[in-house]
Amino acid sequence: MRPRSEAELSRLVERAAAERRTVKVVGAGHSFTPIVCTDGYLVDLGDYDRVLHVDQAAATVTVQAGIPLWKLNQELATRGLALENIGDIAYQSIAGATSTATHGTGLRFGNIASRIIGLHLVTGDGSVVEATPEHHPDVLDVARVGVGALGVLSTVTLQCVPAFNLHALEQAESVDAILERWDEEITGNDHFEFFWLPNTGWALTKRNRRTQEPARPRPRWRALRDDYLLSNYAFDVTCRVARRNPELGRRVAKLVPGTGRSDYIDRSDRVFASPRTVKFYEMEYAVPRENLVEAFNRVRELVRRQGVQILFPVEVRAVAADDIPLSTAFGRETAYIAVHVYQGTPYDQYFQGVEGIMNDYGGRPHWGKMHFQTAATLAPRYPRWHEFQALRTRTDPTGRFSSPYLDRVLGPSGA
Ligand SMILES: Cc1cc2nc3c(=O)[nH]c(=O)nc-3n(C[C@H](O)[C@H](O)[C@H](O)COP(=O)(O)OP(=O)(O)OC[C@H]3O[C@@H](n4cnc5c(N)ncnc54)[C@H](O)[C@@H]3O)c2cc1C
Questions:
Q1: What digits encode the pLDDT tens for the residues 372-411?
Q2: Which end of the chain, N or C, is less packed with Cβ atoms under 10 Å?
Q3: Reported pTM
């Protein structure tokens, strides 16, 4: 179903209710789990992707829920505005990204959902709740990260910021040295992240500083070489070889040149997000910021002990605490550790090993990425879990938006 208006969206849910079918919305389909799979109605908001209103003075924007981030970034840039912080791709729809607490990095900045200041939610009987800080603030509070379980987000209003550039510095460094400076790095840089190359002592660091200095982008040939040729095409070929023959893959990897040191200034979204064409599986865990170094070192040790032969890096980021009940950063400054393997590569042993470590730190798995948890193991990790479930019982008492996957990770609606 591809609705074009809120009224159509609402009628669609009414019809599903009359037919006793379930409804799932798919954003850009960029989650790594069956989170959007259904044998009921699958709603694609690809034709429901416009900017509805911009308040230039207040720097706010109201959009239809299907708008992809790349288009939103573009629309905001033409109006001198920007999203405060985003992750490392911009293919997701705004509702898909916020529903799973999608985040970037930067200890002074929250995830994308934390910037939501209003929303319209189509509930299980097709009625629309218009939630703002003044009307239905309880719905606004919880539904910012709804995991697709509370209803269909129809529109989202976001607090933006004046457009800004980022000064990017990317280079390879010793991972031990990075860990020693972890606190300084995340407090001293606007945006800091690193990618550790398993079985080596090296990591690629990215430091982004917010600036109003004019753009000084990489030459086009260099951006194409780094972002497409080396980071995607050559990497894909190397991963393919390594999937069949890990030893040969490692040798090929040594022949592919690195992207080297990069120092440039560009529009914020062009620095935050880059193209990704290589397909992979991912699990990402949120742990308290202060546990990062210990948890990361245990992952390093696990990789060594298990003899994990992978080329995909382990990514580490940090974000501010927020107050959204099902946000992975709820109530604590958060560090994220993400592990990846190339598509078609066995991942169970590696991911389960990493998950076992994360459990010791009250780790919360990303809602759009792989994990092995259930509602029973997740509930104690979210102090406001019951408030989420109470709202779910109100907005979806009959399980209109449920699915086998949500039954596993959230429990059945009304439970
Ligand atoms: C290459 C790649 C890079 C990534 N990088 C990052 C990153 O840097 N940071 C990060 O945090 N995550 C990252 N992710 C994960 C990604 O941001 C999330 O999985 C996100 O949910 C995908 O958005 P989507 O639009 O594809 O949503 P989908 O995967 O299609 O849906 C996700 C959830 O949102 C729900 N949903 C979608 N639209 C609506 C709506 N209108 N109303 C109610 N519910 C809705 C769906 O039902 C589902 O529950 C990455 C994923 C990939 C594949």
A1: 999 999 999 999 999 999 999 999 999 999 999 999 999 9
A2: C
A3: 0.95
